[in-house]
Design brief:
This protein is α/β, with parallel strands linked by helices and about 160 residues long. Helix content is about 25%, strand content about 25%. It has helices at about 60-85, 125-140, and strands at about 10-15, 35, 45, 90-95, 95-100, 105-115, 115-120, 150, 155-160. Helix 1 (about 60-85) packs across helix 2. The longest helix is centred in the middle third of the chain and has 24 residues, at about 60-85.
């Protein structure tokens, strides 16, 4: 497409779950895998949700999707705040998502809710900082790419002045 920038990403998903007989039966293999990317020293340990015979101590694809949405939103908010001169000193998000499974085994996410909590240095700019979450939502590459609503409910407070 003329005038558009194209970005390409690569990631490797490597299955680690062959327990000997491979996928000879549904219960014969582990869902464990790892994700890695070129030039990155670490990897992410993944599995299926425990409801689907996965290892609950590893990240599942649903959690990674939710984490990607929360991360994208956060990065946009931080960018927009920096451009606006709003100093953010803390940021966290307790994101939640809901997926439905159909009788045939298929399923999809029906909603993601981001709940960012942000601390800024200037109480007079709280309303402006909250509005930047709306702009971040409009800009987030991932929220714009999914087929379900991604809602956000930000809480912005001002850091207490040292006494």
């Amino acid at each position: 497409m003329s005038g558009y920038l194209t970005h390409r990403y690569r990631i490797t998903a490597e299955w680690l779950g062959n327990l000997g007989p491979g996928t000879s039966t549904y219960t014969a293999y582990s869902r464990d895998h790892q994700l890695s990317a070129p030039g990155k020293a670490t990897f992410i340990s993944g599995s299926a949700d425990p409801a689907y015979r996965g290892d609950g101590s590893r990240y599942n694809p649903e959690e990674l999707l939710l984490g990607a949405l929360a991360s994208c939103h956060m990065l946009w908010v931080l960018h927009l705040c920096a451009n606006a001169g709003i100093v953010v000193t803390e940021y966290s998000d307790q994101a939640m998502g809901e997926m439905v499974q159909h009788p045939d085994g298929s399923g999809e996410f029906v909603i993601a809710e981001l709940r960012p909590r942000m601390v800024i240095t200037d109480a007079a700019r709280i309303v402006e900082a909250i509005a930047l979450h709306d702009r971040a939502h409009e800009m987030c590459f991932l929220a714009r790419s999914v087929a379900f609503p991604v809602k956000h409910q930000p809480t912005v407070t001002a850091a207490e002045s040292p006494s």
